[in-house]
C-alpha cells in the first residue's frame, strides 16, 4: 500500500511516504517554520523521492491533534483535500498516540504530552502490548499537576515523552520519583512514518466529517454556554 | 477546449463563508456554493476567528464536492485551482489556501492566489463585460476603497478609509442601537422608515482627497445615544439609523461621483457586502443617471463573499500566466499591487 502521512500538530513538521507498505521517504523539520508554506512542498519532495505520483497513493494518514489549532488545520485541510480529490481513504490518528508508538518498551505506561500553556498539557496514556499500541486513557486537556497525580495513582512504571518544550521536568521527578523515565530526545519527535504504519491497520473515516481534535472549546463558546446556563 | 474558456475551481474562506465555485472563461458561472456561518456567529455578536476557522475545516471538502457536482465537472475538466490568498482572517484563509494547494498538487493543476477585493470587483464580470477605464467602489465590513482600472488585472487605489470600513461603522452603530449582528441590513431596514433628523457630520476630509473616514461619525452617533440615555430621553431608532445612513451614503456617493468624473470612466462598478444596502443602491442610481457613466451593482448573491468572484478574477491571472507555487501562503494583510 502507498501511504502519505502528514503531521503538523506542533512545531515539528513531519511528512512521509510508504511505498508498498515500506518507508520510501520521510522529511522532518524541527525548526520554527511556517507549516502552511512548508507542508505541500515537503509532500512534493517525499513523493518525488519515492518516484510516486499523487494518483499512485492509496491512503492518506493525518495526525488529528491535539496540538496547535492552526497547525492542525493546515495539515488537516491539506490531507482532507488530497484524500477527497484523489478519492482515496483517509485515516486520522491521535498526535499523542503517534508519539507514544515510538517508544518500544512493552508493558510500561507511556505518557506522551504536549505543553498547552498556563500549567496545562494535552496528555494521553498508552501501552505497547504484543498486539501493538493500546490506548489506556483517552487524550485530554488537563492541568499537569493533576495529570501527574493520576499517573502516580496508577502505581506503575511510566515513560514520559513530549515533542514540545516544557518546564515540567522537576515536577515530573518530584511526583513520580523512581517510577518515571523521560524518553531519550532521539525518540521524542513525531515521525510521520510511524503515523503511516499505524494508519495501515486502522479503519478509514469519512473525509467530509473529519475535523481536528482540539480537546478545548473556543473561549467565546464556553463563555456563551456559561452565560446561557446562568440565565436558566 | 480552447484557451479562452478555461474552467477554474475557486475557493474562498477569508471570513465566515466557506465557499467554492466553478467558473468558465471568467464570465460563466457553472456553480456557486456558499456555506454561511452567519447564524453561528450571531450569538457572539460578531465573527469569532477561531470559531470561523473550525467551521471552515469541517465544511471545506463537502463544499468543494458540491461545487463540482453542481457544475457537473470532473477534475479532467478543470484547468486551474484558485483561492483567496488575502486579505482576511488568517486562520480562515489558511484552510482555503491549503485545500487549494492540495487539490492543485493532486491533479497537477496550476494554482492561482487571488486578492479578495479583486474578487469582489470581478463578481460584476459574471454579469456584464467590463469597459475601461472603470472605477470600482468596494464597500464591505473590512473595506471602503475606490479602485481605478485601466485594463484587466490593473488595480490603482485612489481612495480608501483611514479608519473604520463603512461596514464596520454600520456594525458598531448597530451594536450601540442594540440591534443583533450583523448590523448593516438591520440599520438599512430601520432607516427606511426614519428621517435624517440628527444631521450627523459628513467627513469629506481635505479638498481633492478620495479617502474616507467613518470613525468620527460612529463616535458622534454613539455619543448622541449615550447623552439621550443619560438624560432618559426617548431614542427614535428609525431616525438615528436614517441619519447615520444618510451621512455614510452622502459621503460615499459624492466622493465616488467626483472620482468617476475626474477619471473620465466609462463604468462604475459597486462591490462588496455593503453594496446590498438598498439606500446606497438607490442613491447611486439617482446620482449616476444621465451622467453617461454606466452603473453596475451585482445581484445580492454576488455582493457578499463567494467563490465565483474569485474564479472570475482568477481567469485574468490565468491568461496572464500569474500562477503560484506550492509554497503559496495566506496573507491576511495582502495589498493590491
Ligand atoms: Zn468580502
UniProtKB/TrEMBL annotation, chain A:
Pfam families: TsaD
Xref: Gene3D superfamilies: 3.30.420.40
Domain of life the protein comes from: Bacteria
Domain Gcp-like: 32-198
InterPro entries: ATPase_NBD (IPR043129), Gcp-like_dom (IPR000905), T6A_TsaB (IPR022496)
CDD domains: ASKHA_NBD_TsaB
Protein name: tRNA threonylcarbamoyladenosine biosynthesis protein TsaB
Organism: Alkalibacillus salilacus
Classification lineage: Bacteria, Bacillati, Bacillota, Bacilli, Bacillales
UniProtKB/TrEMBL annotation, chain B:
Class of enzymatic activity (EC top level): transferase
Chain residues that bind substrate: 138-142, 171, 184, 188, 277
Cofactor: Fe(2+)
Keyword Iron: yes
Molecular functions per Gene Ontology: tRNA N(6)-L-threonylcarbamoyladenine synthase activity
Span of domain Gcp-like: 28-311
Annotated residues for binding of Fe cation: 116, 120, 305
Catalytic activity: L-threonylcarbamoyladenylate + adenosine(37) in tRNA = N(6)-L-threonylcarbamoyladenosine(37) in tRNA + AMP + H(+)
Entry keywords, A to Z: Acyltransferase, Cytoplasm, Iron, Metal-binding, Transferase, tRNA processing
Assigned EC number: 2.3.1.234
Summary of the function given for this chain in its UniProt record: Required for the formation of a threonylcarbamoyl group on adenosine at position 37 (t(6)A37) in tRNAs that read codons beginning with adenine. Is involved in the transfer of the threonylcarbamoyl moiety of threonylcarbamoyl-AMP (TC-AMP) to the N6 group of A37, together with TsaE and TsaB. TsaD likely plays a direct catalytic role in this reaction.
UniProt similarity note: Belongs to the KAE1 / TsaD family.
Protein name: tRNA N6-adenosine threonylcarbamoyltransferase
Taxonomic source organism: Alkalibacillus salilacus
UniProt lineage: Bacteria, Bacillati, Bacillota, Bacilli, Bacillales
Gene that encodes the chain: tsaD
Amino acid at each position: 500500500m502507498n501511504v502519505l502521512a502528514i503531521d503538523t500538530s506542533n512545531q515539528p513538521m513531519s511528512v512521509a511516504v510508504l511505498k508498498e507498505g515500506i518507508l520510501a521517504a520521510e522529511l522532518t523539520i524541527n525548526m520554527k517554520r511556517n507549516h502552511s508554506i512548508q507542508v505541500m512542498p515537503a509532500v512534493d519532495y517525499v513523493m518525488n523521492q519515492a518516484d510516486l505520483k499523487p494518483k499512485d497513493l492509496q491512503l492518506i494518514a493525518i495526525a488529528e491533534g491535539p496540538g496547535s489549532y492552526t497547525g492542525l488545520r493546515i495539515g488537516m485541510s491539506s490531507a482532507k483535500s488530497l484524500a477527497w480529490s484523489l478519492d482515496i481513504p483517509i485515516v486520522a490518528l491521535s498526535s499523542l498516540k503517534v508519539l507514544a508508538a515510538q517508544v518500544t518498551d512493552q508493558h510500561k505506561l507511556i505518557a506522551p504530552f504536549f505543553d498547552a500553556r498556563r500549567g496545562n498539557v494535552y496528555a494521553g496514556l498508552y501501552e505497547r502490548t504484543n498486539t501493538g499500541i493500546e490506548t489506556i486513557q483517552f487524550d485530554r486537556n488537563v492541568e499537569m499537576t493533576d495529570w501527574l497525580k493520576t499517573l502516580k495513582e496508577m502505581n506503575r512504571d511510566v515513560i514520559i515523552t513530549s515533542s514540545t518544550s516544557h518546564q515540567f521536568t522537576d515536577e515530573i521527578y518530584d511526583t513520580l520519583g523512581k517510577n518515571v523515565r523521560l524518553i531519550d530526545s532521539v525518540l521524542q519527535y513525531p515521525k510521520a512514518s510511524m503515523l503511516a504504519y499505524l494508519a495501515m491497520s486502522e479503519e478509514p473515516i469519512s473525509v467530509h466529517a473529519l475535523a481536528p481534535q482540539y480537546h478545548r472549546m473556543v473561549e467565546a463558546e464556553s463563555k456563551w454556554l456559561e452565560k446561557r446556563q446562568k440565565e436558566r | 477546449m480552447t484557451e479562452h474558456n478555461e474552467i477554474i475551481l475557486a475557493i474562498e474562506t477569508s471570513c465566515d463563508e466557506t465557499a467554492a465555485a466553478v467558473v468558465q472563461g471568467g464570465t460563466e458561472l457553472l456553480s456557486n456554493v456558499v456555506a454561511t456561518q452567519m447564524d453561528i456567529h450571531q450569538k457572539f455578536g460578531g465573527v469569532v476567528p477561531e470559531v470561523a476557522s473550525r467551521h471552515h475545516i469541517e465544511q471545506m471538502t463537502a463544499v468543494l464536492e458540491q461545487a463540482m457536482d453542481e457544475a457537473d465537472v470532473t477534475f479532467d475538466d478543470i484547468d486551474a485551482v484558485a483561492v483567496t490568498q488575502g486579505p482576511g482572517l488568517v486562520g480562515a484563509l489558511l484552510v482555503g489556501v491549503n485545500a487549494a494547494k492540495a487539490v492543485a498538487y493532486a491533479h497537477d493543476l496550476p494554482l492561482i492566489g487571488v486578492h479578495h477585493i479583486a474578487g469582489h470587483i470581478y463578481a460584476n464580470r459574471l454579469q456584464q463585460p467590463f469597459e475601461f477605464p472603470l472605477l470600482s467602489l468596494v464597500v464591505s465590513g473590512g473595506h471602503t476603497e475606490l479602485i481605478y482600472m485601466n485594463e484587466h488585472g490593473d488595480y490603482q487605489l485612489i481612495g480608501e478609509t483611514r479608519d473604520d470600513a463603512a461596514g464596520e461603522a454600520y456594525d458598531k452603530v448597530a451594536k450601540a442601537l442594540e440591534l443583533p449582528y450583523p448590523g448593516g441590513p438591520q440599520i438599512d431596514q430601520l432607516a427606511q422608515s426614519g428621517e435624517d433628523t440628527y444631521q450627523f457630520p459628513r467627513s469629506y476630509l481635505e479638498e481633492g482627497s478620495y479617502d474616507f473616514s467613518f470613525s468620527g461619525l460612529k463616535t458622534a452617533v454613539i455619543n448622541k445615544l449615550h447623552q439621550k440615555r443619560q438624560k432618559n430621553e426617548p431614542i427614535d431608532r428609525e431616525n438615528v439609523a436614517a441619519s447615520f445612513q444618510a451621512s455614510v451614503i452622502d459621503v460615499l456617493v459624492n466622493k465616488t461621483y467626483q472620482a468617476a468624473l475626474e477619471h473620465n470612466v466609462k463604468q462604475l462598478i459597486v462591490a462588496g457586502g455593503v453594496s446590498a444596502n438598498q439606500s446606497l443602491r438607490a442613491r447611486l442610481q439617482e446620482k449616476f443617471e444621465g451622467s453617461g457613466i454606466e452603473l453596475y451593482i451585482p445581484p445580492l448573491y454576488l455582493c457578499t463573499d463567494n467563490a465565483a468572484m474569485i474564479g472570475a478574477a482568477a481567469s485574468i491571472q490565468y491568461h496572464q500566466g500569474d500562477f503560484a507555487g506550492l509554497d503559496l501562503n495566506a496573507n491576511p494583510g495582502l495589498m493590491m499591487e
